[in-house]
């Protein structure tokens, strides 16, 4: 099987991680990187001995670029992705898919017309602990799922950003809950606010799913200690995972188990999955449609936070 030629657009913190991981995969080869900050692109390119560019058009004109990963600011996702799609390259876009659901729909419509596959960077889907819980749910080990509670909090420094904690952080847990529950969010009630950041820096969300399941998400950039935790309650058992350590506990009525789960880097598993999907010609696991649906929930939460009302999620 040939290696997938990948270009990485954006060489900031997360873009550098993409280059590091993709550069180590046996089925992929980073053939070029691009950043509007040529000095930054040069630093990354020199370190990994990869050609670097400032011009997006120039890197997309390369015939050895089969696919592209976009790690640029959210406000640029739509414009960058449109150029990638026009160039006929399959694309992986870091979350959120776009600034708004309207932009996301336009992006996906264009990709469909051009027959381009779109993946979204929902890295927690590939967390080994999440995958373990998914298997338990699919085998009915937890019984009927009743409630999902996620806490994603940390003390985040004030920085130049283009989205708040809802679209930047809580969106991960929205996607994980959709992935585990296997249904869509119908309504959202949220309380959001801003204390020290440009956009909202706390978001408390109550989600109602199509199957009757309930989700609660606590996300903020204010808590002194970093916590990344998810608890799934079913009629037969409760499972709790730590996203960071990947430690998992499953509690039944008369016993608790702590499974031995091999620790693996979720980003590596995510990009391996993307590369494989493009090489064998199938839709990525976390698809553009998943990105759109998570974004719609975020927008419903922000609207609910602004109005104090329960908001129905657009479809």
Task: Please characterize this protein's 3D structure.
This protein is an alpha/beta fold. The protein folds into two domains: 4-123 and 268-285, 3-Layer(aba) Sandwich (Rossmann fold), CATH 3.40.50.720; 125-252 and 296-312, Dihydrodipicolinate Reductase, domain 2 (2-Layer Sandwich), CATH 3.30.360.10. Helix content is 36%, strand content 28%. The chain contains nine helices and 15 strands. Strand 4 (67-70), helix 4 (77-86) and strand 5 form a beta-alpha-beta unit. Helix 4 (77-86) runs parallel beside helix 5 and helix 5 runs antiparallel to helix 9. The longest helix is centred in the last third of the chain and has 20 residues, at 288-307. The relative contact order is 0.16. The mean pLDDT is 96.
Brief characterization of the structure:
The chain is α/β, with parallel strands linked by helices. The protein is built from nine helices and 15 strands.
């Amino acid at each position: 099987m040939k290696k997938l030629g990948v270009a990485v657009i954006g060489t900031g913190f997360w873009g550098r991680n993409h280059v590091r991981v993709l550069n180590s995969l046996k089925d992929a080869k980073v053939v070029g990187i691009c950043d509007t900050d040529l000095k930054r692109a040069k630093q990354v390119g020199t370190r990994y001995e990869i050609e670097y560019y400032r011009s997006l058009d120039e890197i997309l004109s390369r015939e050895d670029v089969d696919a592209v990963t976009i790690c640029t600011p959210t406000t640029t996702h739509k414009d960058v992705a449109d150029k990638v799609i026009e160039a006929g390259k399959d694309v992986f876009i870091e979350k959120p898919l776009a600034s708004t659901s309207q932009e996301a729909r336009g992006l996906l419509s264009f990709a469909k017309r051009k027959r381009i596959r779109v993946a979204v960077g929902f890295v927690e889907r590939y967390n080994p602990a999440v995958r373990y819980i998914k298997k338990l749910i699919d085998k009915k080990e937890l019984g009927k799922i009743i409630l999902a509670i996620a806490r994603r909090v940390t003390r985040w420094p004030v920085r130049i950003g283009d989205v708040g904690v809802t679209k930047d952080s809580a969106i991960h847990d929205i996607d994980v809950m959709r992935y585990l529950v296997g249904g869509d969010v119908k309504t959202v009630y949220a309380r959001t606010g801003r204390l020290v950041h440009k956009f909202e820096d706390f978001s408390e969300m109550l989600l109602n799913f199509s199957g009757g399941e309930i989700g609660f998400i606590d996300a903020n950039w204010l808590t002194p200690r970093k916590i990344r935790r998810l608890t799934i309650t079913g009629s037969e058992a409760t499972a709790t995972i730590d996203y960071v350590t990947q430690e998992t506990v499953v509690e039944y009525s008369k016993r608790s188990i702590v499974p031995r789960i091999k620790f693996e880097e979720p980003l590596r598993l995510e990009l391996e999955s993307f590369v494989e999907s493009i090489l064998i010609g199938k839709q990525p696991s976390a698809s553009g449609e998943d990105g759109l649906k998570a974004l719609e929930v975020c927008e419903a939460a922000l609207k609910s936070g602004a109005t104090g009302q329960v908001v129905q999620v657009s479809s």
